[in-house]
């Protein structure tokens, strides 16, 4: 593999030489700053061998570097071994960011190149500004050199879209467009440039299939006070959608025409302000440049983002039902696993396949919401480990097994993690497991004043681990889409934020994950993840209180719970949760499974 | 009183008419954005009757309004009754900020006036910007109309400064100036304009006596790469300080000359950048305007602020000792109170006098650090209640009594609150009291990663109350000075921030209060306040952990503790704290006091 990477890098360096490019950057993104991307866009993986979902590869004459975040340090180290690519651990002390690195290393007359469509505008602008501070450095953002050096590159994906009826979406596009235009005007803009795929799907009440596990269609949108231009591959437009679009004042145009459209558009034709609302974090740099000097960019959040994040009553009701069934499928899987391990051969891959199969049997199943993470023993210490056929662990009757998985259903997107005891485990593992559960449940039962963001609440999940001097190097929670991306903003639960991250007040109807964990390289990984809905509680003279409801109902493995690390309140929380697990899922289970579940959810 | 206020407002309106001013603003500040101010500056109190420490009075032709924050809503309502002044509850829904209010009400051709020296630059700039958005509105910032209408105004205070020896300050001025110049250069500036009094005192190792309870001298500073100009009333300069200043390259100038100095200074004389670092929140608007177009302001924190907030080893060692003695004085007071109430007449005022007297007896006592808050029963629901002779409650053998107090000592500034049971109290009070203690101790024992700010930690103190649907309308903690202001920045513990507030990473050596509370109007007020020092803990692969040490050692009244509201961990925390209370203070107490303390700190 690493010879392959070296050969690919050599091919890329040839293309760089042809264009006179000294440094070439390959971010992870597609043209839409998507977190997961279609194979067509997997240039960074192709040229580095690193398979994580975040990172940027920088290639120069005699070497190359890969920048990625804490979730992937262990994995990246493994995957980069022998490629000659240096790992840059982002946010660690002394590790420069890419613009600083380039500033330090590039000499006068040198040029850095990249495909501006694959870099988000914020990063592009920061790079431009940083390099502009040194004289004689060139930037070219129109170069898809990775594409040129990539002989067997897959084609752009093409799949017809699916139109959601209103009993699934809960709100029509006309109404959504009205709200979006209102917020656009409130932000002081006339136009809205949309590039975020899940925002576009939400707004148009369609779902696509162009990205694995993410039901989105490659597209762009440009909303004016009177019209909405929607750019999508023509082969993806169904008759039903064409009709719906027409009825909602939407003009459909070919996907590839967005740049020319933006360059040619007469921004002065409307109110004449020419102000275009855009979210620099979520449009690509080339798109931003296409606006040229004619439009005046107004930086701000996409109004679609928060409107989408606050789920409506129809969406929440559907999700509740979907989550119960999805939880039952995971319970069935855990039951099977506990009763089968040691009797039949199970590997990480076959276990995932088993679970995926149980989901596929469910009504309304569309796809997985992300590739199942199926990790045994020390593999679970890699937060986003993906087991590979032929090179994965066999499960045995000892240690712990972590499974992080979810489905896309006609009625919701799920995401759940459980760590399952397969046999004997150490006292330390029990302690870690118990404290993860304690933190997860402490956050679950938080009552908080309206106005809190995830930054205020994060410590409730982290505290039991911090008390032990242990941290997990990721956020505690992310937002979750509705039949959409398993990660969505703006809501999240974190204790600190980098510049790219958003911090949002937790609004009624937002859906978030709650997933503390312990990751011990070479030993074990534990994560317990439930999904929560933000609800409005009591309003009194002291303010509007908020709380969470839980959507996920899967037992937390009692075999790894050591009550010595729990306060009575912690035990009560666990018992309350387990009682609800039984109540919400028993009806979907067989008699044997139910009997087992009764034991698995008995009070501690 | 309210007739008096009306007459004073009438006199002010006459001056306004003379100058053609339609709206006149009187902020609470002196010329240095000090939180507490000398009587000379108490114009807002004089013209409104409102005695709180924060608020702005706006006066116009037919009415007037007072803007203040949640700490003072109850008190302001009482004090404003009958004055015709409307209370504007800041940060409540639908309550406009002053600039918005003015924008809405001022008509073309009208003028708003104020004394620019009493308004901080940020507020002045915001006002200017806001009003600039409407045509034909005038602003005059050179008008001390309140001074003109205030016949019997006290004179500017004049007190000689006290020079701190290095065994008290822990660091000489030359060394401090070196650090300050380094940080000024790092901020990209050549000069530093300093107006914050406690920062100036810290830098020059002097203490003054121009503000009640705040050992500061009215002064300004202008730091250049080679010199420091220090503006102070000449009568305040002692021979010792003059010598020290000379030895440290400090040029002393008259206090009143700062504006002319700034107008005349040749900013191009040095490196020629003319860049002056200033903190818009902490210099006044007139000072900012005096820089004119010749200097280029660089906005940033005063480097002195963080350098001062991180206490050095000498300071911390002195504080530890001072806090033990100060704690013992409060224990002596509580002992006396519990044994005397019902036998002798005690009023809120005489109780405060008793406690203040016990502090005065201590070695190194200089002053109180703020006027003692001595509040019985429902008076304690007013967070910053000040009992007045002749109009205060008599203490009896029932209910609870809250005392928030502190001293200035040669060796530290203290601040401590205890709520003391004087006899029978309700179950509700016990519940509230217990949960306040639980939150206070939960925060005290927090372990957290370096990088956390008070925003991350606040919920640890608030959670037990939020769970009951109760909030306290203030921050959980503020920074504390060293022989300086009892409130200092940038550190604090809050769950949300207004624009004026700073959020700072908690650094080793910072000192903060931890003071959750419950305030029930007309019924009771509970606050338990300890002072904490930030310490560095374990550093491992997951990061640098931090924790708090406690400086305050006074029992938390066990008579109001109901263990039904505590988890075993909460009880252990209380017992651990109480054991330390006895250990740290017993040596300063009489045999009877010690015997009582042993009971008061016995395990629950």
Structure notes:
The structure is a homodimer of 604-residue chains. The first copy, chain A, is an alpha+beta fold and 604 residues long. In chain A, 35% of the residues lie in helices and 21% in strands. Chain A contains 19 helices and 28 strands. In chain A, helix 16 packs antiparallel against helix 17. The longest helix of chain A has 28 residues. Chain A starts with a helix and ends with a helix. At the A-B interface, strand 21, helix 17 and strand 27 of A face strand 21, helix 17 and strand 27 of B.
Q: Estimate the strand proportion of chain A.
A: 15-25%
Q: Treating each run of at least 4 consecutive H or I residues as one helix, how many helices of chain A?
A: 19
The order of strands across the largest sheet of chain A is 4-3-2-1-5-6
What is the C-alpha radius of gyration of chain A, as a whole number of Å? 25 Å
Oligomer: homodimer
Largest interface: A-B, 30 and 30 residues
Percent helix of chain A, as a range, is: 25-40%
- Low-confidence stretches of chain A at least 5 residues in length (pLDDT < 50)? none
The overall strand count of chain A is 28
Please describe the biggest sheet of chain A, giving its number of strands, its sense, and whether it closes into a barrel.
6 strands, mixed
What topology emerges from the helices and strands here?
The structure is a homodimer of 604-residue chains.
Chain A: H1 2-19, E1 23-26, H2 43-48, E2 56-60, E3 64-68, H3 73-80, E4 85-89, H4 98-105, E5 111-113, H5 121-132, E6 138-140, H6 145-149, E7 162-163, H7 166-169, H8 173-186, E8 191-194, H9 197-204, E9 206-207, E10 219-223, E11 228-232, H10 239-247, E12 250-254, H11 258-264, E13 275-278, H12 285-290, E14 296-299, H13 303-309, H14 313-340, H15 348-360, E15 365-368, E16 373-376, E17 400-405, E18 407-409, E19 412-413, E20 416-421, H16 427-444, E21 447-449, H17 454-466, E22 477-479, E23 488-493, E24 511-514, E25 517-520, E26 524-527, E27 530-540, E28 543-550, H18 568-585, H19 591-600
Parallel strand pairs in A: 1-5, 3-4, 5-6, 8-13, 11-12, 13-14
Antiparallel strand pairs in A: 1-2, 2-3, 7-9, 8-10, 10-11, 15-18, 16-17, 17-20, 18-19, 21-28, 22-23, 24-27, 25-26, 27-28
Helix pairs in contact in A: 4-5, 14-15, 16-17, 16-18
């Amino acid at each position: 593999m690493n010879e392959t990477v070296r050969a690919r890098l050599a091919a890329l360096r040839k293309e760089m030489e042809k264009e006179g490019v000294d440094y070439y950057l390959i971010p992870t993104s597609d043209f839409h700053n998507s977190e997961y991307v279609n194979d067509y866009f997997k240039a960074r993986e192709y040229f580095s061998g690193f398979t994580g979902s975040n990172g940027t590869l920088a290639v120069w004459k005699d070497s190359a570097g890969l920048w990625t975040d804490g979730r992937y340090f262990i994995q990246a180290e493994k995957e980069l071994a022998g490629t000659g690519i240096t790992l840059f651990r982002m946010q660690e002390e002394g590790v420069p960011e890419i613009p600083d690195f380039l500033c330090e290393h590039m000499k006068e007359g040198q040029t850095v190149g990249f495909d501006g469509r694959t870099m988000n505008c914020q990063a592009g602008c920061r790079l431009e500004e940083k390099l502009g501070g040194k004289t004689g450095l060139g930037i070219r953002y129109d170069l898809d050199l990775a594409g040129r050096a990539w002989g067997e590159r897959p084609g752009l994906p093409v799949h017809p879209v699916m139109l959601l009826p209103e009993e699934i979406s809960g709100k029509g596009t006309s109404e959504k467009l009205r709200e979006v235009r209102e917020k656009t005007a409130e932000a002081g803009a006339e136009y809205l440039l949309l590039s975020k795929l899940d925002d576009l799907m939400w707004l148009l009440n369609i779902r696509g299939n162009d990205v694995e596990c993410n039901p989105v269609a490659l597209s762009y949108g440009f909303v004016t006070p009177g019209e909405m231009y929607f750019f999508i591959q023509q082969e993806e437009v169904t008759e039903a959608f064409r009709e719906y679009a027409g009825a909602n004042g939407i003009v459909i145009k070919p996907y590839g025409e967005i740049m020319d459209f933006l360059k040619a558009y007469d921004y002065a034709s409307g109110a004449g302000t020419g102000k275009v609302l855009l979210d620099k974090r979520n449009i690509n740099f080339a798109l931003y440049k296409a606006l040229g000097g004619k439009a005046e960019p107004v930086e701000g959040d996409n109004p679609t983002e928060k409107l989408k994040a606050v789920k409506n009553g129809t969406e929440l009701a559907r999700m509740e039902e979907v989550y119960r069934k999805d939880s039952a499928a995971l319970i069935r899987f855990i039951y099977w696993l506990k009763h089968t391990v040691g009797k039949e051969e199970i590997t990480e891959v076959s276990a995932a396949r088993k679970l995926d199969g149980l989901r596929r049997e469910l009504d309304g199943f569309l796809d997985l919401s992300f590739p199942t993470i199926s990790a045994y023993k020390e593999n679970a210490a890699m937060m986003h480990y993906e087991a590979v056929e032929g090179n994965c662990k066999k499960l045995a009757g000892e240690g712990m097994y972590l499974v992080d998985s979810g489905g896309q259903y006609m009625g919701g997107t799920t995401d759940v993690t459980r760590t399952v005891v397969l046999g004997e485990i150490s006292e330390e593992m029990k302690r870690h497991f118990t404290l993860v559960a304690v933190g997860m449940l402490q956050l679950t039962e938080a009552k908080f004043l309206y106005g809190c963001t995830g930054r205020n609440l994060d410590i409730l999940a982290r505290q039991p681990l911090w008390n032990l001097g242990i941290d997990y190097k990721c956020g505690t929670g992310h937002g979750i889409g509705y039949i959409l991306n398993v990660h969505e903003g703006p809501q999240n639960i974190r204790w600190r934020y980098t510049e790219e991250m958003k911090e949002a007040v937790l609004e009624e109807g937002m859906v978030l994950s709650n997933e503390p964990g312990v990751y011990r390289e070479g030993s074990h990984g534990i994560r317990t993840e439930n999904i929560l809905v933000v609800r409005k509680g009591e309003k009194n003279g002291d303010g509007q209180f908020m709380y969470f409801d839980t959507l996920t109902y899967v037992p937390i493995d009692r075999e790894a719970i050591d009550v010595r690390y729990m306060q009575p309140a912690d035990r009560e929380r666990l018992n309350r949760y387990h009682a609800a697990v039984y109540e919400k899922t028993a009806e979907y289970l067989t008699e044997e499974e139910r009997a087992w579940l009764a034991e698995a959810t008995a009070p501690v």
